[in-house]
Write a structure and sequence with these properties.
- The complex is a heterodimer.
- Chain A has five helices and eleven strands; from the N terminus they run H-E-E-E-E-E-H-E-H-E-H-E-E-E-E-H.
- By secondary structure, chain A is an alpha+beta fold.
- In chain A, helix 2 packs parallel to helix 5.
- Chain A starts with a helix and ends with a helix.
- The model of chain A has no long low-confidence stretch (mean pLDDT 92).
- Chain B is mainly alpha-helical.
- Chain B has two domains: 29 residues; 113 residues, Orthogonal Bundle (Cytochrome Bc1 Complex, Chain D, domain 2), CATH 1.10.760.
- Helices cover 54% and strands 6% of the residues of chain B.
- In chain B, a hairpin with a 2-residue loop joins strand 2 and strand 3.
- In chain B, helix 6 packs across helix 7.
- The longest helix of chain B is centred in the first third of the chain and has 27 residues.
- The N and C termini of chain B lie far apart (80 Å).
- About 4% of the residues of chain B have low confidence.
- Classes of the chains: A alpha+beta, B mainly alpha.
- At the A-B interface, helix 2 and helix 3 of A face loops of B.
């Protein structure tokens, strides 16, 4: 009887060990097209960019050098999905605010209305720090363009929409090589839980 | 023998508690089919029209969107809340000592009944127990603010 019992425990431990090692070894996928040139694989990366954040600071790819970051697209006067996205992004913010390795980047898709001053007030009202969470504005075409071609996120003007824009509620996880490692629905609790786990997984890749 | 002696008083106490509870409910008329109909319709409308900003649980969003739950403004300004749902609000609003400036867009497409259902829902959720808010009362309030300009979602 006791012997049977110890066998069972042994097998359970074996299963647990197998699960935990396989989970550790599994890396996050690299999203987007890839080109294989000889022995090299060239992955899809985020293009160079230059925007202005809520403190009037210039924000470029250099701002995110050696950082993992989460990007999204929104606008402050949006009453559809953006407030939910911001509630969810605040969860991400709270979990990474003391982590020097991770930053957040929210692009407004309505730069005409969302000026630096307005974004400054918005970020203040969310109670978030500007060196951790950049709210950026800039040329609207540039923002639409980087959304569609770099982040695979939908963002465009659409007069049929109640607020004049159509955009996805996606959160994009970008690694230190500017590659997209995950796409999440920023309006869904469970999806953002997955993002939080994936940030931890991605950090482990760099810890080794 | 002893158990038999204890059971009747226990039953009596339980009956009193039950009576007390249902008595309170009937004061709020929260067991009436009409209340429940208003409340449930109101909940759906709230989720559809209000919860994006004010959130499903009524907490609002930090200092961007004001809370409905535990809000001194909600307690003291029911008529204004009713008008605001239809016409919106562009004025700064102080809620629990914090000033909010994001404009609230009005929803002119909502009928008097739908607004009555929404306010019945929000005034019987979280820490509010105001009972049904009838459509005739809402219509009266709305006629007082008739003709206001409907606020869009951007500051002018």
């Amino acid at each position: 009887m006791t012997r049977l019992f110890s066998y069972i425990i042994f097998f359970l431990l074996l299963i647990a060990a197998a699960c935990s090692t396989s989970r550790q070894e599994e890396k996050l996928p690299i999203l987007g097209e890839r080109i294989v040139e000889g022995n090299d694989t060239i992955y899809h990366t985020i293009a160079d960019f230059q925007f202005v954040d809520q403190d009037s600071n210039i924000v470029t790819q250099e701002t995110f050098k050696d950082k993992i970051y989460v990007a999204d697209f929104f606008f402050t006067s949006c009453r559809t999905i953006c407030p939910i996205m911001k509630t969810q992004m605040l969860r991400v913010y709270d979990s990474i605010k003391s982590d020097p390795e991770v930053l957040l980047l929210s692009h407004t898709i309505d730069p005409e209305y969302d000026t630096v001053g307005l974004l400054h007030d918005y970020a203040n009202r969310l109670g978030v720090s500007s060196d951790k969470w950049h709210f950026v504005t800039g040329n609207q075409e540039d923002i639409f363009n980087i959304a569609q071609t770099s982040y695979f996120a939908t963002a465009m003007a659409d007069n049929a929409e109640p607020d004049g824009f159509i955009h996805s509620g996606a959160f994009l996880l970008v690694d230190k090589e500017r590659r997209i490692r995950g796409k999440y629905d920023g309006t869904k609790d469970e999806d953002v839980n997955r993002l939080l786990r994936d940030i931890a997984r991605l950090k482990k890749e760099y810890a080794n | 023998m002893q158990i038999r002696r204890i059971v009747p008083p226990l039953l009596f106490i339980a009956a009193i508690i039950l009576a007390a509870c249902s008595g309170r409910n009937s004061d709020r008329s929260s067991d009436s089919p009409k209340f429940l109909q208003y409340y449930r319709q109101g909940e759906q409308l709230y989720v559809q029209h209000c919860s994006n900003c004010h959130q499903r649980n009524g907490t609002g969003l930090r200092q961007v969107y004001p809370p409905l739950a535990n809000s001194d403004y909600m307690r003291g300004n029911r008529d204004e809340v009713i008008c605001m749902i239809r016409y919106g609000n562009a004025e700064p609003l102080v809620v629990n000592g914090i000033q909010f400036v994001q404009p609230m867009p009005g929803i002119p497409s909502l009928t008097d009944l739908e607004i009555a259902q929404i306010v019945t829902y929000i005034y019987n959720s979280w820490d509010y127990e105001e009972g049904i808010i009838e459509v005739k009362d809402v219509s009266e309030v709305l006629s007082a603010c008739e003709g206001r300009e409907v606020v869009g979602n951007k500051k002018m």
